[in-house]
Design a protein that fits this description.
Helix content is 2%, strand content 38%. With 166 residues, it is mainly β. The strands form 4 sheets. It has a 4-stranded mixed β-sheet with strand order 1-6-5-3, with no helix packed on it. A 3-stranded antiparallel β-sheet has the order 8-10-11.
C-alpha cells in the first residue's frame, strides 16, 4: 500500500539582533531604516521569507533610545520576534541668522541694551532651537561706533551655529 503524507513546518524561526543601531536625523529632522539596514542573525531551518520592523520612520520626537521590534516569518507562517534599541541622534547644526546692521541709541544716562531676539533674523534648526544668546547685551558711551555682536544658536542636542552683526 502507498501512504501519501504532507510534511509541515511548525518550528518558529529564531529572530536575533546582533547589535544596537544608531541613525542620524537629516536636515528635515527625519530618518528611516529598513530591515536591510540593521544587523541581525535570524535563522530558520526552512528559510525566512518575511522580515518586518515595527518602527521604520523616526523624527525629532524620537531623539535618544527607541525600542524596535524585529519580526521574522518563515514560509509556513511561523514567526519569532526580538527587540533592540535604535538610537536616534541629531548632528545637524542650526542655522544662525543675524540682522545686519543693527543700530541702537544710548539713553539720557548714556546706556542701552539689546537682547538676542533683537539680533536674531529667523534662525532655524531641524529639531527646534533650545537657546539663542548674544555675547554683548549692554552698551555705554565707550561703545560709540561700530561694535561686533555674536549670536549663538544651540539646539537640544548641543549642536550650534554662530553669526555676527555690527
Amino acid at each position: 500500500c502507498t501512504i501519501t503524507g504532507t510534511g509541515t513546518d511548525s518550528v518558529n524561526p529564531i529572530a536575533t539582533w546582533l547589535a544596537p543601531f544608531t541613525i542620524q536625523l537629516d536636515a528635515t529632522g527625519k530618518a528611516s531604516i529598513t530591515a536591510a539596514d540593521i544587523v541581525y542573525s535570524s535563522t530558520d531551518k526552512c528559510g525566512i521569507v518575511y522580515i518586518r520592523l515595527h518602527v521604520t520612520n523616526f523624527q525629532c520626537s524620537h531623539l535618544g533610545a527607541n525600542t524596535v521590534t524585529l519580526t521574522v516569518t518563515d514560509a509556513s507562517g511561523n514567526s519569532d520576534m526580538c527587540t533592540t534599541t535604535v538610537m536616534v541622534e541629531d548632528s545637524v547644526n542650526p542655522v544662525a541668522s543675524c540682522i545686519a546692521p543693527f543700530t541702537i541709541q544710548l539713553d539720557a544716562t548714556g546706556n542701552a541694551s539689546i537682547t538676542a531676539t533683537d539680533i536674531d533674523d529667523g534662525s532655524t534648526d531641524n529639531c527646534g532651537i533650545d537657546s539663542i544668546t548674544i555675547d554683548e547685551t549692554s552698551f555705554d558711551c565707550t561703545h560709540l561706533g561700530a561694535n561686533t555682536v555674536t549670536l549663538t544658536v544651540t539646539d537640544a542636542s548641543g549642536n550650534s551655529d554662530m553669526c555676527t552683526t555690527t
